[in-house]
Amino acid sequence: MMQMMRKVAVFLLFGILIVAFAIQFGGDFSFQHFSQQPYVARVGSIDITPERYDRSYQRALENLSARARQRISQAQARALGLPQQVLQELIQEAALDTEAEKLGLGLSKEGLAENIKGNQVFQDASGKFEPAKYQSFLQRAGYSAPFFEQEYRSDLIRRQIQGLFQGSGVVSKTLLDAYNRYLNEQRTIAYFMLTAKDAGTIEAPSEETLKSFYEGHKMLFMAPEYRKVAVLAVTPQTVAAKISIPDGEVKAQYDAKPDVYTVPERRKIGIIPFKSKEAADAAEAQLAAGKSFADVAKAAGFTTGGISLDSVSKAEFPAKFSANEAIIDEAFSLGKGKFSKPINGPLSWVILRVDDIVPGKQESFDEVKASIRESLIKARSSKVSSKLTKSLEEERAAGVSLRDIAKKLSLPLEEVTSSLQGTGQDGKPVQLASVPAATLADAAFKSDVGVENDALRLKEGGYAWYDVEDVIQARQKPFDEVKTEVEAGWRKDQIRARLAAKARELVERLNKGEKIADIAKSVGATVKTTKPLKRGSPEEGLPQAAIAQAFSLVKDGAASALGSDGESRAVLQVEKVTEPEPLKEMASKTLEQRLSALISEDNYAQYLAGVEKTAGVAVDRKNFTAAVGG
After folding, report:
1. Could you tell me which of 235, 238, 229 has the C-alpha nearest to residue 414?
2. Residues in the chain with pLDDT < 70?
3. Cβ(27)–Cβ(102) under 8 Å?
4. C-alpha dihedral over 394, 395, 399, 400, to 10 degrees?
5. Contact between 560 and 510 (Cβ < 8 Å)
6. CA–CA gap between residue 445 and residue 418 (Å, rounded)
7. How many CB atoms lie within 10 A of CB 614?
8. What are 415's strand-pairing partners?
9. DSSP sequence for 162-211
10. pTM of the model
């Protein structure tokens, strides 16, 4: 039904397209026809020249760099597929231009001038066209007026064609209800798992059996491609290693700031506030008579033994409790276990008690010299790091290899051979001191031998430069090398096949009306029941494939699905289907707009594909490869 709706919409819009342009535009439009010049692609009668492609590609590269807030290299752009994206956009533009020519569509000089003058980019604050701003724009962009106006005219016509498809997506109530049901319908699933133990005993395979499995699954036994990479990093650690601070300077820093290395005395202090001097005096008498501090605090209205300041220095005391100098001085002059006389504080009368004292001390030079040295190195590292980075970049610009730069600047060079997954040829994860293995592997596989790469910014600070020195191609591992792996793979395949067959039998029993609890019990399994789940909802212990299966079943329908480990099997039954609530007005309108936009985009994409097919597209791979630099 959706396909029929889209086809009808495209057919009707195509008819409207011709009429709309015949009414709105004149016929003054020119096109680039076949020439003897080389082309990157040819669409109908229009050539996309290497010059035009390069201009569009450079503009796209600049825009991508601006969005990323860093310069995107050619290697990174190729890895992101930018050359192909630019080519496809130019092919689409040329296809629309060809279609416009076929339909006799165009834009008069007056219409073009009116559109340019109406563009806010070229207007002053009052909204009037400013010729100086227009000329300034052309100069900054490096365009001549005729070239820009021809491009602008073509773009306006393309936008008008595309604009006819906006709002073309018609959403019926049936479609809206179906989409709501798809998004919000829920299934409650009862299930149990079959595991390797349910597959029974699997006898040891013969040599011929293993070789047959190996031949049929060779792709499982491939050694991946590896990249041999040299890495040179400027990190806080490498910078610190190049900074030497003599003991005399460290000692001078210690002597210059003795207070910094003094550990203050800390006390645990109990406090009881009182509303009046009389109440405080009465409490003092009770304490002198032997009543406990906690009991006096409770009599004063506290559920616990008053206010307790745990491990506080004299300097910190005012931030913990509203106190004046009299309170602070008394708190740090009392002996351990002693209580004070009533003291008049800023907010109330108080009585203090010192519960514990940790004496202060002067840290010795030997105790703190390591931390002083570290702080001095840190203070100088920024300057040293900048100098190293500048020197390294200058050497790179001069074409010096990372190996030679490492020797010249006395920096450690790391060498690693890694797969795209960050594993070495021994299958173990690659370990580097400077760069996360996954980050380096991703960058290295987007580059190649002989390519000068941009430095990687490191999360912990600093940069890492890298060169791909060699590419070790993927290879087929011989049978004798992987015999153990082959047997493990064969055994897993046998378990998977046996569990699938067993699950089919159990599903048949479910579909005949047996209860899932009884069937699970017969194989020694336990039934679990999920909460109501929507499509794609996660459920611990239940593979996504099983949840997807459940949404293809009616209530009480049964099925099985492969476990997430690729071996076990889930046997499931839909216990309940919960229909979604009807959409409220606002939610219905939002969903309708969303679906309409998607259908409109699809209508335009189908129209565009048809136009390209009719026009005919030819890409010169040799010229395209040359245009993107390989």
Report:
1. 229
2. 1-36, 305, 629-630
3. no
4. 180
5. no
6. 10
7. 12
8. 230
9. HHTTTT-----HHHHHHHHHHHH-EEEEEEEEE-GGGG---PPPPHHHHH
10. 0.52
